[in-house]
Amino acid sequence: MSIRSRIAGIGMYVPQNIFTNNDLARYMDTSDEWITERTGIKERRYADRTGETTTTMGVEAAKIAIERAGITAQDIDFIVFATLSPDYYFPGCGVLLQRAMQMKEVGALDVRNQCSGFVYALSVADQFIKSGMYKNVLVVGAEKHSFGLDFSTRGRNVAVIFGDGAGAVVLQPTEKENQGILSTHLHSDGASAEILAMYNPGTHANHWVKEAKLADFDDAEIGEMFFSHAMIDKAQTYPFMDGKSVFKVAVEKFPEVIKESLDANNLQTTDINLLIPHQANLRISQFVQKKLQLRDDQVFNNIQKYGNTTAASIPIALCEAWEQGRVKEGDLVCLAAFGSGFTWASALLRW
After folding, report:
1. Domain that residue 25 falls in
2. Residue 300 falls inside a structural domain
3. Catalytic residue among 93, 206, 278, 319
């Protein structure tokens, strides 16, 4: 009998600090109506500035997932940590989590696929389980966006969207015929990589950003340095996003990759008990739901409370849905994500 991987335990952590749309309006020219209309977001969580990091939030989510799996941190064989906001440029958060949880000297892999990071990480962990190499793989998605956002009117189009948090799952093998991850599907297209990116600091010496003509990178000092005062003065150390262009591609690729997972398993959209899309924008989720003709009870959204937590959004949403009884044994659950890169991915699993 073939081995599949199943989610044996799941956990989430979000910071206590709640920032509403009205709170943001104190720092930038925006309003609750403006943000809600464009994103569906009402509030988000921000980590403590110095007391919490991407890793510490990942640890809190991991503790819960490990306990719910009925094991201890010493039983973990391998770590896959997905984030776009690591504690350090290097080393990655995987080894920092291993240290913080006092685990054995297990392998730790960091995944940098932004919004699609958790599904990519889940797919990697799935292969390790199916091959028999590992028995308990910890998969973490965590983000601390708040430390790197431009909280001024200049940066509002990006800043109002993102929040902090973490989610984690423990994957274990199962031989039950109707349980576990059925398939995963991963894609990328780097043709429009600069449409959603954080250019600096980086080693590009402006080659790609100049070619993309997305920003003023004429200053010679910037081109010669990894990091400079000129970058700060010109606000070139913040994320860049062409929101309309991202939306246009997202609403095309989301349905495609969801249908791909269903087709691969000879299933229909009517078979889905719950679709958990990456919480990028409520308007994107609503568009996808309408295109796939899914009922409200077939789709789970919590972006209203947490904003876009990129790699953490799917495990947070999946954990919350499970805690609310929206995910039960035997349910068909589809996870789907689209983001920077562009990368997009889906995973179909039987709970």
Report:
1. 4-174
2. no
3. 278
Residue 225 and residue 106 share a domain: no
| Total number of domains constituting the chain | 2
| Backbone φ, ψ for residue 111 (5° rounding) | -115, 125
Considering the entire predicted model, what is its pTM?
Answer: 0.95
- Does 334 qualify as catalytic in the annotation? no
Q: Note the pLDDT tens digit of each residue in 34-90.
A: 999 999 999 999 999 999 999 999 999 999 999 999 999 999 999 999 999 999 999
Q: Does one domain contain both 34 and 114?
A: yes
Q: What are phi and psi of 204, to 5 degrees?
A: -75, -20
**Annotation marks residue 115 as catalytic:** yes
Q: What is the pLDDT of residues 174-224, one digit of tens each?
A: 999 889 999 999 999 999 899 999 888 888 767 777 676 665 555 555 556
Residues 17 and 96 in one domain: yes
The catalytically annotated residue of 113, 301, 302, 308 is 308
84 plus 233 within the same structural domain: no
- 3 state SS of 88: coil
Annotated catalytic residue within 115, 185, 301, 302: 115
213 Cβ contact partners less than 8 Å away, ≥ 6 residues apart: none
What gap in Å lies between CA 312 and CA 315, rounded to an integer? 6
Please confirm, yes or no, whether 229 is among the known catalytic residues.
Answer: no
| 126 and 18 in a common domain | yes
